[in-house]
Design a protein that fits this description.
313 residues, two-stranded antiparallel ribbon, globular
Length: 313
């Protein structure tokens, strides 16, 4: 639903949840990670198989609220905000993602950056980020859903951002459907998490560096999304990587705590005609109340959490 997420700078996947761990694959765990799991006695396969089905059903309802609008990307350009390459996550971090859970998280992070690059037509960087995304997708065995050559062709021969975004969106929807069909929806959740934190980081950095632009409402509105995202992550509480993310996002939740979100109804109703029927609807506006100190705390906390996510152990 677009009303829930108005600032996402790239495409994210609509997902529902499965409960079983994916079958062992050569790129899932390196020897060091296997040794770490053995030392702690943690059985990852048994963990994912043990997820309560009732919780899965609840999560499935909530995740439908995440959508993939790109309005904010265009909005940043409409504000004539200059491009800043320092906002982007270095592609070198992808080499540190040694298990599939981290690779899915990285897939989301770099996808958010790709959306930012698309808006500013940074063709050289776009190709670099496409290559990293394709690399991670290949390691996750979903590269068949990325038409890398077509995406690269559009970048180098056309200024048609809409076509580029359409292909990206289509690829992610196919990947999500595949994750769900193979009982790996927790990877979709991690991709969504990566997109969300990177998009929030981009938005807060733009606000910090361009105080004349007011993105206060767009930032404050993410309080509800953060609470929902934490609720989803907590379904997998008990898994080391998910525990780490939950701990980090709770720090961000504290920074958002003072934000007040209210719906204000206007007197009277709006009359519209659709398919020969008269429909009355009451106008409602979402009001975000957030003082300067809270905004500053959110900007700082977002940078700290994003750094922690990029350097996930």
């Amino acid at each position: 639903m677009k009303k829930l997420l108005l600032f996402t700078l790239s495409t994210i996947m609509i997902l529902s949840f499965g409960c079983k761990k994916e079958k062992n694959k050569s790129n899932s765990l390196n020897p060091k990670k296997i040794e770490q799991i053995a030392d702690t006695g943690f059985n990852e396969q048994a963990f994912f198989q043990s997820i309560d089905q009732s919780k899965i059903a609840e999560v499935d309802e909530i995740i439908g609220g995440f959508a993939s609008p790109v309005e904010a990307s265009a909005m940043l350009k409409d504000y004539h905000i200059p491009f800043n390459k320092n906002y982007l996550a270095p592609t070198s971090y992808a080499n540190n993602y040694d298990i599939n859970l981290k690779k899915a998280l990285g897939l989301g992070i770099y996808s958010a950056d790709l959306g930012y690059l698309n808006i500013y037509h940074k063709n050289t960087q776009i190709i670099n980020y496409l290559q990293v995304i394709f690399q991670l997708a290949s390691q996750l065995r979903v590269a068949q859903f990325f038409d890398f050559q077509s995406l690269k062709y559009l970048v180098t021969t056309s200024d048609n951002v809409d076509s580029l975004l359409f292909l990206s969106v289509n690829s992610f929807y196919q990947i999500d459907a595949y994750f769900r069909s193979t009982r790996r929806s927790y990877l979709s959740l991690l991709s969504v998490t990566g997109v969300w934190i990177e998009s929030l980081y981009l938005l807060t950095q733009v606000q910090k560096d361009n105080p004349y632009v007011s993105l206060r409402s767009q930032i404050g509105s993410q309080k509800d999304l953060l609470n929902k995202l934490l609720e989803l992550l907590e379904v997998y509480q008990g898994h080391p990587e998910f525990n780490y993310l939950i701990k980090q996002f709770k720090k961000l939740q504290q920074a958002f705590a003072p934000v007040q979100i209210k719906e204000q109804k206007y007197n009277g109703k709006t009359r519209t005609v659709k398919d020969g029927r008269v429909i009355y609807s009451q106008d409602v506006e979402t009001v975000i109340n957030m003082d300067d100190q809270t905004l500053d705390n959110i900007i700082k906390a977002t940078a700290q959490v994003r750094k922690a996510v990029l350097n996930m152990p």
